């Protein structure tokens, strides 16, 4: 049985994961407007992954006999100054999410809720990967500066990213 405090914190993280998906959809839309389809593809795959994260929290709450409470999801920004600014914002966001996951783990330890602590292990590892993959793109964009050729090559590269959760409805038909 989850404590009230733990349940509230898990529901808050579920909301943050949904916001993460919203944020990356907003970034995908921004890149669509710039005709950077590879960047948009990468962001859509990222958004899809975030829905998967939300689903993990959703399922876990029910596995522990809790109740999911869905709060309003904050509206994300629509515009960024540049592709670099968008990825820097994504990196900052992932660092914030890592902090939230660590705080959840600390709470689970404080409450001696070892099941939740074990559940969070996957997220702790995932955040290392999330931060690293975004940071790599930030660095490449810094290197590209204003070179359209490098931006084009990077767009091709990011267009290769495949969605990781084929079971979700976001995959396009064909
Ligand atoms: Fe769900 Fe990108 O952290």
From TrEMBL:
Chain ranges of the Ferritin-like diiron domain: 1-145
GO cellular component terms given for this protein: cytosol
CDD domains: Nonheme_Ferritin
GO molecular function: ferric iron binding; ferrous iron binding; ferroxidase activity; identical protein binding
InterPro entries: Ferritin, Ferritin-like, Ferritin-like_diiron, Ferritin-like_SF, Ferritin_DPS_dom, Ferritin_prok
Pfam families: Ferritin
Keyword tags: Iron, Iron storage, Metal-binding, Oxidoreductase
SUPFAM superfamilies, alphabetized: Ferritin-like
Protein name as annotated: Hypothetical rsgA
Lineage, opening ranks: Archaea, Methanobacteriati, Methanobacteriota, Thermococci, Thermococcales
